[in-house]
Each structure stands twice: as C-alpha cells, then as structure tokens.
C-alpha cells in the first residue's frame, strides 16, 4: 500500500483518541461510520494520498442541515470509492434507494430514446434545464487536487471546448482574467458562479487557490454552459426558456459526447465504471450526475394536500427557483428528478417530462375547480 | 533531512507535476509570503516535509487563498508544527526579518518573565486608563499546531491543559468550560463577560485548517475572579490572558507571569514543555507571534491626543500600536483606544510591558496638557 507519512504519524494515536465526535450529527456519514469501521479504514490511503479523515472532514465539521440530509463525505480521487468502500457502499445504498454493491448502472445518452418532451405547455413551464458533472480520468478531484492538476484540467477543458462548432461554438472566461464588463454580463445571464461560501464545500477544501484555474465557458447562443473546477472538474448545463425539454436534452447529449471524444483523444476520458456510472466528488451525484428540471407555475397543485405524495410517486423533487433549499416564489417551483444512480439519463429525463406533463394537467383541472383524484399516479 | 511525503514521490498513477505547473499565482497578492516566495524557493522547498508530514503548500495555503488585507499586511503563512520554522527556514527567515524589524537568523531572543523587573506600572491614572490586559500564546512541545494537528492531538492538548489548570490554587483557582458541553447559562455568562470565543470566521484562519472538527477539543478556562483566562485550541494550543479594570498594569503582569510560570512548571512535571528556542523564543502558529507572543495593552481615553497631528509619530517612537476597542482592525469609539506594544520578537516580556507602561504614562500626560490647551512639543519622545 502506498505510504503516507502524515497518516502514518496519526496512527501513533489510538482509534479512540482519533474517532470523531458525531453525537450531534445528522448526515449519511455519521449514520454509517462506526468505531470498528474507522479502525479498519484509518490506516489506508489511496495512491494519491487521500485518507478516511480527508473523506469525512466535511461531515465532521458540518453536523447536519435542518432541512436536507447531507452526505457528509467526499471523494478526493477515483480510488476513494474502492479503498473506502466499507463506508461509501452503505452511504450509497442509503442515499440512492437501496443501490447494492453488486448493482450495475446503465448509461444512456441517446437523446432519441426520449419520448415526447417537446410539448410541455410554455404557459406553465417557464424554462427547462439539464445539468451533470464529469471528472477527468487521471486527475484527483477538487477536495484534493494540486494547483498543477487543476490547471491541467482547465487546459484540457479549454482545448476540448475550443473544438466545438456550429450551435456549440463559444468562449471561455477564466475567473481570474475576467473584465468588469464580462463579469457584469455573466452575472446578468445568471451564469457566473462565485467562490463557494457553503461550509460543506469549504470544509472539503474545494475553494483552495481560488480563483486559479476556474472559469466559465458558454456557447454564443447561451444555451450550453460549462463550469470548470467548481465542485467537480466539469459541470455541463444545457438550458433554454420554455418547455422544450426534448431540445434541451438533445443539445445536452450531443455537446457532452463531443467533449468526451476530445478528452479521450488525449487519453483522459471521463471517470466512469459499470457499478457507479460517472464518478463525481459527492456521492450524491454518482450514476448520471444528472438533474433535469423545469421552472413551472403550479400555484394550485403546490397547495394541494397530495402534492408531496404525487412528487414522491413520480420520483421528482421540488426546490425554490433560487436552487437547492430556497423557497418558491409566486407558486413557481423547480421540479426535477430525485434519482441519480440506478437509472439512465434517458430514464430520468423521461420521468421529468412525463411527471411535469401530468402535473400541468392537474394544475389545469384544479384551475377549473375539478378534482384530480383520478389522476394520482402509481409509484414509479 | 526529513522525508518527503511518500505519496508525492511514489504515486505512479499521477506523475508529480513540475514546480512551474504548481507555483501559485501571487500576482494580486499583498502579504509577507507573496513578497518573499520565488519560483526557485518553491522548487527547492516542495521536496521537503516536516517529520509530521507538513509541506510547503500547507505553510502557504492561507496566503494564497487570502491575497491581502486592505489595512494590514498579513503574514500569509503558518506553521503546522515546531519543525516548520527549521525545515522551511528559507521562506520563514526573510518573513520573520521583514515582520519583526530586521530580526536576523543569527539573532538571539531574550525571555524575561520576572515581573519584579518591571518598574512602576501600578499608577496609571484610572480616569484615563479604563482597563489593562496582557495576553500571549503557548504551544505544547510534541504536538502539531492547529493547522495540522489531528483530533487525537488536539484532545491530548486539551486533556493536558485541563489537568494543569485544575491544579492551580489561590487566586488562580478556576474552572474549565469545554465548548461542546457548555450549558446555555454558562454560555450566556461567558458571552456577558466577553470571554467566549467563537468558531473562527476569518478566512485567514479557515484557509489554514484551524477550524477543523470544531468544537471538539476547544474550551475556555478562567479563574473565579475572572482576571486570568486561558483559551484552549483556538488559534494556538493555549492563549493566556490576564486582565482587570483600571490602570494597574503591574498587578496584571504579576498575575500573568505567576500564572504562566505555574502552568509551565505543571507541564514540565508531566514530562513536556512549551515550544521554545533561543532564536525564536516561544514558537507559535503564526510567525507574527514569535518571541514573546505578547500583546500588553490598555484601553485609554485620549480624545485630544488621538486627534493631534503627531499622534501616529508619537506611537511609532514609543513602539506602540493603536487599535479600536473591539480588537484588531476595529475603529476607536469616543476617543478610547486600545494601545499596546507593536513588537513581539527581539525584546523580552518585561521590556515590552515596560514600553507600554512608560508610553501610556506619557500619552496620558500629553492628554492632560492638551486638555489645558498647552503644547506637548517638549514632551515628544525619542525613537525607542
């Protein structure tokens, strides 16, 4: 096993002395990590030098969120999910609906397999968006990477994105070289990402050396956007106004695959395996890493007694239009897929398309004062 | 030479990138580390690690993440253990020299905690001097420092410290309040007394990893009379504070020296000691606190003096600095200033407190003259 001098030094202390105090904690890591597990895993180190303490620091420092069950651990490299599988497997199972260590994940980025999705009523569906993350094989992840690695990820990303043409032709804006005018425009477009302030991310070391090697790329039409070196190596976003999720997903799949080809040519494909799908920094994003969603006006349905039940059955989740954990404004909700791992991209976007179509129908019924009891779906 | 962290050299999956690829972008930076660190220096230092595995990137991360403060020149680096100052001396020596008035790598630092050597200090006018305080930090030899220590080490520091403090008696007898076990009532009392320290929010501290595992292993100890206070595992292993209302700095310093010496004896009885050497004096997390780690100061009412054209010049000559009464980088309120020693390294504790005592006495005399509409020109001190 790779030698890690700092970790070896910590081994001088017993597991009782080192085991974190998780008595006030409410996150997936705290639910799963026992003293025995800690004892077994603490002497290990991935080849790049990431340890159990490194994985769990964010969960130790952030006892829990009042509204959402946080994961409480991150991966520092691809090998973490294997070296520390005793901890990650139960967390993955708990977070991803019982996903087993022997399960296989299916990837399907063939947009033609999506049925419908081009006719969501724009009077209700204001905008559509699909995002995912990608990690570049051969480099460690944002909690652990060195400046040199981060810069290489940026360099490779810029090269790959520069080869895009047609509808994908665009431009890269590095955070540390942005003019004031560019910055204002990116803010106005709601594209600019800030230095993380969330303690969840800061504790995991993802803001180190900010803004070095961070940047934003988008196409001229502003419908395809890539974040470089934020919480993952890459975050890829396709979006547009209105309800044509089919078109959003088409652009998403086509753009992603073009980018992946370029990386593969440099022998740096995306991190992927047949058990976990796409490997990302946070275990909650494993599998597809995909969140496909709409901003949709559901003032009546959202106040209906069965709203939560309907979402659960459709395998959808709601958020405010400011993003995760914000409140909705004026009855407009962000509705997206709840799952990431164990179903394919097409399957997840299909659930969003079908589910939103149904909810808009329900909204229209409620507007007319009619009941929706006959429309309540079965559990997907 | 201490070993290089092995994972940096043996990892065949990820070939180690060149120093040029790894050198930080310091083009927007204004701190001591950024002034000193060159590509050549970085190339040389990145092949080293302390015996506990602390590397150059660990030392400088806070200075990279925090380009600079508009009002104060930050240090931009920290020590992760006692050995940092030796293993990375090419970087730290010039920083120490720049920060501590030209202190050379060959200079020796004198420690003097004999309170009897302080002349006067018991007669600062309480109409002007509202309160007096002396603080310092101490590190416990054998443990890594807050940027690098493990939970086990931090708890070890806490355990040893609490044992030592529990055996203090007389007017030093007191009680320890662990941050994670505090009752609401205890917490409120500590807040009212202005004793409670919060989880750090300063990005300078957060970027260096000092808030990890909060509040595990952190706490506050104070004596029953609330004149002697110890912080455990905040920015340093220990911060020791002696304070009281009024201008009797001599008494504050007496208690400070007595308490510190007693605590040190207790640690020695347990087979350990404070980190100290004859070049750097007391070794602390931040290079700005080397030497004595001592800040002795008063809150003093000098509304006239502080508006005088020569105020800054007077402070400079007296080797004093001013702060607002909220602490470093706050503004003064109602003409009341926090006046303390500017130096830490190269002068002894007695010498620094003497400068405060003598300097504040002079400032109060000047204030009184200005109140009477008299000139202070003949009171201007020479440069100390």
Question: Could you explain the architecture of this structure?
Answer:
The complex is a heterodimer of chains A (380) and B (384). With 380 residues, chain A is an alpha+beta fold. Chain A is built from 13 helices and 10 strands. Chain A has helices at residues 5-10, 15-18, 28-32, 35-41, 52-61, 80-83, 85-95, 147-162, 180-188, 199-203, 245-265, 307-314, 345-367; strands at 125-134, 170-174, 215-219, 224-228, 234-241, 272-273, 277-278, 291-297, 316-319, 332-337. In chain A, strand 6 (272-273) and strand 7 (277-278) form a beta hairpin. In chain A, helix 8 (147-162) packs across helix 11. The radius of gyration of chain A is 21 Å and the shape is globular. The model of chain A has no long low-confidence stretch (mean pLDDT 93). Chain B is globular, with a radius of gyration of 22 Å. Chain B is α+β, with helices and mostly antiparallel strands and 384 residues long. Chain B has 13 helices and 10 strands. Chain B has helices at residues 6-10, 19-22, 32-36, 39-45, 56-65, 84-87, 89-99, 151-166, 184-192, 203-206, 249-269, 311-318, 349-371; strands spanning 129-138, 174-178, 219-223, 228-232, 238-245, 276-277, 281-282, 295-301, 320-323, 336-341. In chain B, strand 6 and strand 7 form a beta hairpin. In chain B, the strands form 2 sheets. Chain B has an 8-stranded antiparallel β-sheet with strand order 2-3-4-5-1-8-10-9. A two-stranded antiparallel ribbon of chain B has the order 6-7. Chain A binds chain B through residues 2-10, 13-14, 17-21, 24, 45, 47-49, 53, 57, 60-61, 138-140, 146-149, 151-152, 176, 202-203, 207-210, 212, and chain B through 3, 5-8, 10-14, 17-18, 21-25, 28, 49, 51-54, 57, 61, 64-65, 150-153, 155-156, 180, 206-207, 211-214, 216.
Tag the structure with descriptive keywords:
heterodimer, A: 380 residues, alpha+beta, eight-stranded antiparallel β-sheet, 10 strands, B: 384 residues, 33% helix
Describe what is shown at a glance.
The complex is a heterodimer of chains A (380) and B (384). With 380 residues, chain A is of the alpha+beta class.
């Amino acid at each position: 096993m790779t030698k890690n001098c700092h970790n070896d030094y910590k081994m001088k202390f017993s597991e009782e002395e080192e085991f974190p105090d998780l008595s006030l904690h409410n996150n997936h890591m705290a639910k799963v990590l026992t003293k025995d597990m800690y004892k077994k895993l603490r002497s290990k180190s991935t080849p790049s030098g990431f340890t159990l303490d490194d994985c769990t620091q964010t969960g130790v420092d952030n006892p829990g969120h009042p509204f959402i069950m946080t994961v409480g651990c991150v991966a520092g490299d691809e090998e973490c999910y294997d070296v520390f599988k005793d901890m990650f497997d139960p967390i993955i199972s708990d977070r991803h609906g019982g996903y087993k260590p022997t399960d296989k994940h299916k990837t399907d980025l063939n947009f033609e397999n999506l049925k419908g999705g081009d006719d969501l009523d724009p009077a209700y569906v204001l905008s559509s968006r699909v995002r995912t993350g990608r990690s570049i094989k051969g480099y460690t992840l944002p909690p652990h990477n060195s400046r040199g690695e981060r810069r290489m990820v940026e360099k490779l990303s810029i090269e790959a994105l520069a080869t895009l043409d047609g509808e994908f032709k665009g431009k890269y804006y590095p955070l540390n070289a942005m003019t004031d005018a560019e910055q204002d425009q990116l803010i106005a477009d709601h594209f600019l990402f800030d230095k993380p302030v969330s303690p969840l991310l800061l504790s995991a070391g993802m803001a180190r050396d900010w803004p070095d090697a961070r940047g934003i790329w988008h196409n001229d039409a502003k419908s395809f956007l890539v974040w470089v070196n934020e919480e993952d190596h890459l975050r890829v976003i396709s979006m547009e106004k209105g309800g044509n999720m089919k078109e959003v997903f088409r652009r998403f799949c086509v753009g992603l695959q073009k980018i992946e080809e370029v990386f593969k040519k440099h022998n740096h494909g995306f991190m992927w395996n047949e058990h976990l799908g796409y490997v990302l920094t946070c275990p909650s994003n494993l599998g597809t890493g995909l969140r496909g969603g709409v901003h949709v006006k559901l003032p009546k349905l959202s106040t209906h007694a069965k709203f939560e039940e309907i979402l659960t059955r459709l395998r959808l989740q709601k958020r405010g239009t400011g993003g995760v954990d914000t409140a909705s404004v004026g009855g407009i909700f962000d509705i997206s897929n709840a799952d990431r791992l164990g179903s394919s991209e097409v399957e997840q976007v299909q659930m969003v398309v079908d589910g939103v179509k149904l909810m808009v129908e329900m909204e229209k019924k409620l507007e007319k004062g009619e009941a929706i009891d006959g429309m309540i779906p079965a559990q997907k | 030479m201490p070993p290089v962290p092995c994972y940096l050299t043996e990892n065949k999956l990820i070939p180690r990138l060149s120093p040029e690829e790894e050198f930080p972008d310091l083009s927007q930076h204004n701190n001591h580390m950024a002034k000193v660190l060159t590509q050549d220096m970085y190339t040389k230092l990145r092949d080293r690690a302390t015996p506990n595995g602390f590397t150059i990137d660990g030392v400088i991360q806070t200075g990279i993440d925090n380009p600079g403060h508009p009002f104060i020149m930050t240090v931009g680096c920290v020590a992760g253990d006692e050995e940092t100052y030796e293993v990375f001396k090419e970087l730290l020596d010039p920083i120490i020299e720049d920060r501590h008035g030209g202190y050379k790598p060959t200079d020796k630092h004198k420690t003097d905690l004999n309170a009897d050597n302080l002349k006067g200090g018991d007669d600062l006018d309480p109409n002007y001097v509202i309160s007096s305080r002396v603080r310092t930090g101490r590190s416990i030899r054998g443990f890594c420092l807050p940027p690098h220590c493990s939970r086990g080490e931090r708890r070890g520091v806490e355990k040893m410290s609490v044992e030592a403090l529990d055996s203090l008696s007389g007017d030093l007898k007191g009680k320890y309040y662990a941050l994670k076990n505090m009752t609401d009532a205890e917490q409120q009392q500590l807040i009212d007394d202005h004793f409670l320290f919060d989880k750090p929010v300063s990005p300078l501290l957060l970027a260096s990893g000092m808030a990890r595992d909060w509040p595990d292993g952190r706490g506050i100890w104070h004596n029953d009379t609330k004149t002697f206070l110890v912080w455990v595992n905040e920015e340093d292993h220990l911060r020791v504070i002696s304070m009281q209302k009024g201008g009797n700095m001599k008494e504050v310093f007496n208690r400070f020296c007595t308490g510190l010496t007693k605590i040190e004896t207790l640690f020695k009885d347990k087979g350990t000691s404070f980190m100290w050497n004859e070049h750097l004096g007391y070794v602390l997390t931040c290079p700005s606190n080397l030497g004595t780690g001592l800040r002795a100061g008063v809150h003093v009412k000098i509304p006239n003096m502080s508006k005088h054209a020569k105020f800054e010049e007077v402070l400079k000559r007296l080797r004093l600095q001013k702060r607002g009464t909220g602490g470093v980088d706050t503004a003064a309120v109602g003409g009341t200033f926090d006046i303390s020693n500017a130096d830490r390294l190269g002068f002894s504790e007695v010498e620094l407190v003497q400068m405060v005592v003598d300097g504040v006495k002079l400032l109060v005399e000047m204030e009184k003259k200005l109140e009477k509409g008299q000139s202070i020109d003949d009171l201007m001190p020479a440069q100390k």
